[in-house]
Write a structure and sequence with these properties.
seven-stranded mixed β-sheet, about 350 residues, alpha/beta
């Protein structure tokens, strides 16, 4: 089968198309013919050799995908050959940058009608992360003001919709007028353009928009120095959810920025959540049903053919995209980017 493999850590140029043997489903496993694979920041970290669970090359990256079940192993129930599914697996290897992949059955969710395979390939990481952080951890309600950082990213654009769908007031923060305007189109009531309000000015703008109270929930998808600002932007009794450090820098924290406000700091890491027993299928089913019903829009900016994974990573690392980037593999998923 075709796959994209990392034989050594490095930049996007180390993503090499190769031919590898077809996998076979064993007990408790599902063999999936991949239609589309989501491209995530975690994939870039794996490629660079700085992801905490990367292992050593050779590696096939990719933690989420959609496709069609070809076969199931002994003991598998609830899913069968021919069904359309989405799959999530940041725990096991190889990954989803391949035509075929074997996945533990508990990492496979059957898709409802009305969800396209390209959309489905983006749900298990970005959308599930936003869903879990807002609904399960922060417990967002219609009375909350929610600040979403990097609101034009895959997680951010999902979070804007999920928070707005819960009736909350959403403040979308992003790094350009184009990105903030785009994020506002998903239901944000207010925007903060960090190219106009950088660093401490972002804090001042959030406080101005909230009448000095601060946000009830801050979804920090950036980390690094931005996390310290998130603690200043949260209000009394509020919740800061930290789920990334795309800056790959330390966060300098002054505890006086949050403990006098009786604020909570909540951490989220999807892979470790699975390792400690979280079964994502129920949340993913409900999320997919809402997409199928038209309650959420799933923005996919670009679809690259599998063999152009390098170009997909280059776009990801330029941070110019809005929404998600996807690799097209099989089953009628058509690339939109070929150059």
């Amino acid at each position: 089968m075709r796959a994209v493999r990392i034989d050594e850590f490095g930049g996007p140029e180390v993503l090499v198309p190769v031919e590898v043997p077809d996998p076979v489903a064993g007990p408790g496993q599902v063999l999936v013919r991949v239609a589309a694979a989501g491209v995530n920041r975690a994939d870039a970290l794996v490629r660079a050799g700085v992801y905490h669970r990367a292992g050593r090359p050779p590696l096939i990256p990719g933690v989420e995908a959609s496709g069609v079940v070809l076969a199931v192993g002994e003991g598998v129930t609830g899913v069968g050959a021919g069904q359309r599914v989405m799959a999530l697996d940041g725990v096991n290897a190889p990954g989803f940058y391949a035509e075929l992949v074997v996945v533990p059955a508990e990492r496979v969710t059957v898709l409802p009608e009305g969800v396209e395979l390209t959309q489905a390939a983006t749900l298990p990481v970005a959308w599930l992360s936003a869903w879990y952080c807002l609904l399960r951890l922060a417990k967002v309600t219609k009375d909350d003001t929610v600040l979403v950082k990097a609101a034009a990213s895959g997680v951010g654009s999902a979070a804007v919709q999920i928070a707005a769908g819960a009736g909350a007031r959403v403040i979308a923060s992003a790094g350009s007028p184009e990105k903030t305007a785009w994020a506002a189109g998903f239901g944000a009531r207010d925007i903060v353009d960090t190219s106009v309000h950088p660093d401490d000015a972002e804090v001042d703008e959030v406080l101005r928009l909230t009448g000095g109270r601060g946000a009830d929930i801050v979804l920090d998808t950036v980390g690094g120095p931005a996390f310290g600002r998130s603690l200043r932007e949260v209000g009394h009794g509020g919740r800061v959810v930290a789920l990334a450090n795309v800056a790959l820098e330390p966060s300098v924290v002054d505890t006086r920025d949050f403990y006098p406000k009786n604020a909570s700091v909540l951490g989220f890491q999807l892979t470790n959540l699975q390792i400690h027993g979280y079964d994502p299928r129920a949340d993913l089913r409900e999320l997919a049903e809402r997409v199928a019903a038209g309650r959420y829009r799933v923005p996919v900016e670009a679809v690259f053919p599998l063999e152009r994974a390098r170009a997909a990573h280059e776009r990801l690392e330029r941070r110019e995209h809005r929404g998600k980037i996807v690799l097209a593999v099989h089953n009628g998923v058509r690339p939109t980017e070929s150059a």
